[in-house]
Amino acid sequence: MKNVIIRTISGIGFIAIVLGSLLWCRFSFAALILWITSAMMYEFFRMTMGKSYWFSRLLTILSACILFLLTFLSRSYECFPGKMVILSVIPVFIVMIDSLYVKDKTEFGKFANLYTAMLYIGIPMTLTNLAVISPDGTYNGLTMVCFFAIIWGSDVGAYCFGITLGQKYGRKLFPAISPKKSWIGFWGGLLTAVIIAVALHYLGVLDIPLYHCIILAVLMDVAGVYGDLIESQWKRYYDIKDSGKGIPGHGGYLDRFDSALTAIPMGIIYLELINVL
């Protein structure tokens, strides 16, 4: 019961911080994404690299933050040339050069995880700029709020259907990677995601045609499930339960945003294709 209370309180508080930061202004949004990106990359490196090559890990996190900030500035202010985003590759080059000066090469294969983190975490989180800042520089955090509502709704639906029905009936979704996930949980999460997207449409929050809302929810749900499984595969390989302890009762930041790392880019791609962003 104590764990349930802690999980509930921390979950509500965390959701309030995320939503408040997205809705307040562009700078609170930027601070939120930078913090989450840094925390997830820290957890990923701790999981995959232990305490090895701390300086290179710090440079990689810095690279991801610079990439986000340069994209944020180029999207927000017309006076900031978009071509300046290319400067974000400089810290990446420094990481590569730094590898030449590492004396202990016994665990050199772990360096691959530095570049994996940029692709897996840094780039998807940078893309969030496209969801909240229009080409003319106007900020509106409602799209990201809708994204998180769909993602979190899918997670809750999958958990509720999976724990009540999926453990007793039906087949497992990916037993080799995540034994508790079931097909019933998957369909329950998909149903919940669609219901939330439809509700957001009729509430006037997700201001696109209804059929686009449904397609968006389906695409983000499927992408989010894969994102969850991808992180589960990393954790299974390294034999850990949670990526960290950053959110009491919920594990680490990577545990909470694993679905978002694939679902949000998919949502952005779809909205770009239909000329909404």
Can you describe this structure?
With 277 residues, the chain is mainly α. It has 2 domains: 26-137, no CATH class; 139-277, no CATH class. It has helices at 2-24, 26-49, 54-76, 89-100, 112-126, 128-132, 142-166, 183-202, 210-238, 253-257, 260-273; strands at residues 172-174, 178-182. Strands 1-2 form a two-stranded antiparallel ribbon. Helix 2 (26-49) packs antiparallel against helix 5 and helix 7 packs across helix 11 (260-273). The longest helix is centred in the last third of the chain and has 29 residues, at 210-238. The chain is globular. The termini are far apart. The mean pLDDT is 88.
Keywords:
single chain, 277 residues, mainly alpha, two-stranded antiparallel sheet, globular
Tell me the layout of helices and strands.
Elements: H1 2-24, H2 26-49, H3 54-76, H4 89-100, H5 112-126, H6 128-132, H7 142-166, E1 172-174, E2 178-182, H8 183-202, H9 210-238, H10 253-257, H11 260-273
Antiparallel strand pairs: 1-2
Quick take:
With 277 residues, the chain is mainly alpha-helical. The protein has helices at 2-24, 26-49, 54-76, 89-100, 112-126, 128-132, 142-166, 183-202, 210-238, 253-257, 260-273; strands at 172-174, 178-182. It contains eleven helices and two strands.
